[in-house]
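For the sake of transparency, this paper describes our internal protein records without simplification. The remainder of this section carries one protein's record, kept here as part of the documentation:
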Amino acid sequence: MKIGFDADGVLYDTEAFLLKYGVKHFREKYNMALVNPDGYGIKEMFNCTDEQEKEFWTKHGAKYLLTHKPRHNMAEVIQQLRKEGHEVHIITAKGRSLEKGIGQIVQLLFEIGLKIDGIEVDHIHYCSNKNSEQEKLDLCRELGIDVKIEDKKSNIESLKNVTNVLCMTTRDNQDYVDEKVRRVNNADEIYAQINKDSSLKLNRSNIFTKFKKLSREERENLTNEQLIEYYKDLREYYAALPFDNEKLDRKEQNFKVLAATFSAAFHMKYHPKVINQSAIPEENGLIFTSNHLSSKDILLILYALRNKPFHPLGKIELSEGFIGMLHDAVETVYVDRKDKNSRREAINEMSKLLINDRNMLIFPEGTHNKTGENLKSFDGVSAVYLSQTLNKPILPISVTDTYGKNEQPIIRFQDPYIVDEREELEDANEYLKEKMNELVIKNKHEIKMKRLNRFFKR
């Protein structure tokens, strides 16, 4: 099949870049606020002039083309599609790419950026912004494109009658509905839809032709037998998606190097105590869940699990600067808790890691617990959902923040367990909280007894 990818909005999450840099740029330079976060492009988002839009891209264009990362797993999906014999085209209305002089620079920077990001395609076609609908339509006809992945609503409208269109979900098009157009939320769903189409074309059956993801409401209407069968298919679906094991092996080697470096220094300074470490199974595909007291928690867990690489679920802010480089080195899964699309994508990424026998670390409380209570309320049900759907063990952890003089930080492990496929997620979450609370109580008791012993020895 011949597959056409748009660049801005499909290969790259352009909205995220505009929100990240546009808000500061227009506030500081023009005292302008974000008008419409769900608008298409800088003009709709900030209600700016053509000149102000041009000025923004003159300042930030190179940064966008060279440093803004593609959507997660996009390079792997495109590589796999080409391995399977599909012909991949990029058809993009890249701003100013056809202007004399500057256009060659824009094209060069874009293609360098693709190489940096590991995205290799068969052909790249540039269109003008002004007439992108007609030019993309003409190119799809001329090239015989079988599937086009787009995000701009007007382009989708013009293309839907000449080729199969997959609509990549963005803020701007989230309410767009058309029976001729299928929606995709990430690179993996692009792969699944294309694999389904090509298999049906050849009268072949596989997991992509028979499986459809269901919402929580839809799952609640299934019988126990249907639900068990659905989860079985879901696991097969995730296992069939492109996954770069070599890349993850390198990331986990990075983890071991970082862990060895930090653990030696951490041990010398704090002499942490690890309790019930024997509860950790030899096999992988584990969901570690820990309470969250301070930024040192991750170092204490790293110390205890230095030979058991894991991938943390972390807030999107951790992706910035030097800390972001460290998190990227160990393949942290980032999430913007205020964005439902980001939460959904985080579940998708964690599911793929776990189904490929990689370990996850989740802090169910979400943020540091400063309440004085043993545990805060849990922020979502991701840990128990992953255990239930993927048949993977949860291993509860409790850490202390006793780093003062004459103190010793403690990390305590609980025996692993798997959430039953028929259990209500809220009940499963409450049970997890009870197990973690038991660990917190045991740690607090041990700290109390140590302090009493020191007091009476004076």
Summary: The chain has a mean pLDDT of 92. The first strand starts at residue 2 and ends at 5.
